[in-house]
Specification:
Shape of chain A: globular
Strand order of the largest sheet of chain B: 1-2-3-4-5-6
CATH superfamily of the largest domain in chain A: Response regulator
Distance between the termini of chain B: 11 Å
Helix content of chain A: 25-40%
Oligomer: heterodimer
Largest sheet of chain B: 6 strands, antiparallel
Distance between the termini of chain A: 54 Å
Order of helices and strands of chain B: HHHEEEEEHHEHHHHH
Strand content of chain B: 15-25%
CATH topology of the largest domain in chain A: Rossmann fold
Number of helices of chain B: 10
Structural class of chain A: alpha/beta
Number of helices of chain A: 12
Structural class of chain B: alpha+beta
Number of domains of chain B: 1
Order of helices and strands of chain A: EHEEHEHEHEHHHHEHHEHHEEEE
CATH class of the largest domain in chain A: Alpha Beta
Helix content of chain B: 25-40%
Number of domains of chain A: 3
Number of strands of chain A: 12
Strand content of chain A: 15-25%
Number of strands of chain B: 6
Chain lengths: ~350, ~240
């Protein structure tokens, strides 16, 4: 079986988009994917062109729309039009179609402001879009966005929690931390987009409910390679299988890890997870996680922290060596504060 | 070692500590996954300018995994942590008690498994005919109004012999953050609890409580043991029990 998608790419540099006409193929959760790509050029007549297209798409919407953000190559752009403004206009007519950004600009560059960011369901670096992980993410958005289009009159918060397929113990916590903007029963036109953004950019990115391989490995007292190579298969029951789940960037429900761990190793029930995890068959001392500051494996590192404020590299460390990622780092209820390793040389005390 | 040396923080300082603890539970991200604790913290009132008794009660569940539990799944158990502080004189504390009740299950339909409290009874405020440690742990004790409101009855604790007031086990001073953090350590193998413990804000609150509450106590104890006082007087009787 092959999944076939129809994507639209809107860009003022059509050659760039055309390069991907045969390049957006790959797989989603082990199923092959083929994509037909329609390229729409942004020109001085962009409003008329897209208005006409959108009218056509209402009856036969594409599975996903990809937008460039910067249209500076177009002369005399009304309102200095950008991709985010187009996303807003398109979403009014196509609320059930995910709209993602494909831009060469860095998300934290001056090209994006906070309003821009909120208009895109997800933002891809166009230079890395054909990487396996990004392609599967793209396909997951195209495939799963509809899961968040709930019937009218349905209680949206409960429906969202249900579709995430969380462990029973997480349901009430998830209900209580969902953003207030997700209405009780009425579905606003942009609800699927806003819920998708929350799932992709908060639930799946912030430490808390879901863990990536490094976080799971650290929880189990192992390094990431040992978890991925020797232990991961035991944790299938804890795997996140909700919207936008991918094989290339798997996530696990944090609250389900211990159940799986002690089911697999019942004789270790009295041990902490980081001690018990080191008793899986085939695990040797080289597989133990080591603190990114002291390089010691005992006591086991208990958190994952960035090495510095650039957020490029993370390591397992003892929590006593960490501080919040930044003074401005926001705290979102339900999600742990992101950490970075304290500057040891300066000897600053942990905050 | 005189009584003043064992005295706890000032009443206003204690209230500031407990208020910060409650605020941290309400707002620190990691606590959001212990939603019943956040909910109960929102109901707790600690008025900074009030000079009336401090009366906090936190009723919540934690996912727990005891060595003795059958089966591989974590079990939600009810926890009730209370704090009563009675002010006296110029910002002093005449009585301070932190109570802990742990249910066998998540609600009062299950038996009370453990009930105890940590008391501070300053030497100047207590009956000298009865020896007791200034800071002590006491097993069981009567149900509070909060416990009764939560659905517990006397029958639920009869097996713990609540009328017995002894023994009183010497203990270190404590605070809301220190009691909660201790419970998180004791019952903390589940990821949501572990994440709370390792969050920088919570660690900061715990360390502040340790500095305010534990440090003066241990400094006083260490001083007593280091000085010649211990040559003539027993640390336990003179310092811990503050016997005259």
């Amino acid at each position: 079986m092959t999944i076939k998608f129809r994507f639209v790419w809107v860009d003022d540099t059509v050659e760039r988009a055309q390069n991907f006409i045969d390049g957006l193929n790959g797989s989603l959760r082990k199923t092959p994917v083929e994509t037909d790509l329609e390229v729409v050029a942004v020109t001085t007549t962009v409003f008329d062109d897209l208005s006409q297209k959108a009218t056509e798409w209402i009856s036969n919407p594409p599975d996903l729309i990809m937008l460039d953000h910067d249209f500076s190559k177009v002369a005399n752009r009304m309102f200095a039009l950008s991709g985010s403004a187009l996303a807003h206009l398109l979403r009014i007519q196509l609320p059930r179609t995910p709209i993602v950004c494909v831009s060469g600009q860095q998300v934290n560059s001056d090209q994006f402001n906070i309003e821009d960011l909120s208009e895109y369901t997800y933002i891809f670096d166009v230079n890395q879009i054909n990487g396996e992980e990004n392609l599967e993410r793209l396909f997951s958005i195209a495939k799963d966005f509809n899961l968040l289009c709930f019937p009218e009159k349905k209680a949206v918060r409960q429906a969202l929690v249900d579709v995430l397929l969380p462990p029973e113990s997480d349901k009430s916590s998830l209900l209580s931390v969902l953003p207030e903007e997700f209405e009780g029963t009425f579905i606003h036109g942009t609800s699927p987009h806003r819920m998708a953004r929350w799932v992709l950019n908060i639930l799946m990115r912030r430490p808390g409910f879901l863990c990536d391989p490094l976080e799971v490995a650290t929880f189990l007292g192992l390094n990431e390679a040992a978890f991925t190579g020797k232990v991961k298969q035991h944790f299938e029951a804890a795997l996140y299988k909700g919207p936008f789940a991918t094989d290339t960037k798997p996530l696990w429900w944090a609250s389900a890890l211990t159940d799986v761990l002690y089911q697999a190793l019942p004789q270790q029930m009295a041990s902490s997870p980081s001690s018990a995890g080191r008793h899986f068959a085939g695990i040797v001392e080289e597989d133990f996680s080591r603190c990114g500051v002291t390089n010691e494996h005992t006591p086991a590192p208990d958190v994952v922290a960035y090495t510095d404020s650039t957020e490029t590299e993370r390591r397992a460390v003892r929590s006593s060596h960490t501080i919040p990622l930044s003074d401005e780092a926001s705290s979102i209820l339900g999600f742990s504060t992101r950490l970075r390793i304290r500057n040891v040389r300066r000897g600053a005390s942990v905050g | 070692m005189c009584a003043e040396e064992l005295a706890l923080v000032k009443f206003s300082e204690l209230k500031a500590l407990e208020r910060k603890t409650i605020q941290t539970i309400r707002t620190e991200g990691a606590f959001g996954r212990l939603s019943s604790l956040v909910t109960t913290a929102h109901k707790a009132q600690v008025e900074p300018r009030s000079t009336s008794n401090l009366d906090i009660h936190l009723s919540f569940t934690l996912p727990t995994r005891l060595r003795e539990d059958k089966g591989p799944h974590a079990i939600d158990r009810a926890f009730h942590v209370g704090c009563i502080a009675v002010p006296a004189g110029a910002d002093e504390i005449s009585h301070l008690s932190y109570s802990v009740l742990i249910g066998e299950g998540p609600d009062p339909s299950k038996a009370v498994a453990r009930k105890f409290h940590f008391d501070f009874e300053p030497v100047a405020m207590r009956n000298h005919a009865e020896s007791k440690p200034t800071y002590h742990l006491q097993i069981c004790g009567e149900l509070s109004g909060h416990h009764r409101n939560a659905g517990y009855t006397d029958a639920d604790i009869d097996h713990l012999l609540p009328s017995w007031s002894q023994p009183r086990v010497p203990a270190q001073p404590t605070s809301l953050a220190l009691v909660l953090n201790w419970l998180f350590i004791e019952f903390g193998c589940e990821a949501p609890v572990k994440d709370v413990r390792t969050s920088p804000r919570w660690r900061s609150v715990v360390r502040e409580a340790e500095r305010s509450v534990l440090k003066p106590y241990y400094v006083a104890c260490a001083n007593f043991l280091a000085l010649s006082a211990n040559d003539d007087e027993s640390f336990i009787s003179k310092s811990i029990y503050e016997e005259t």
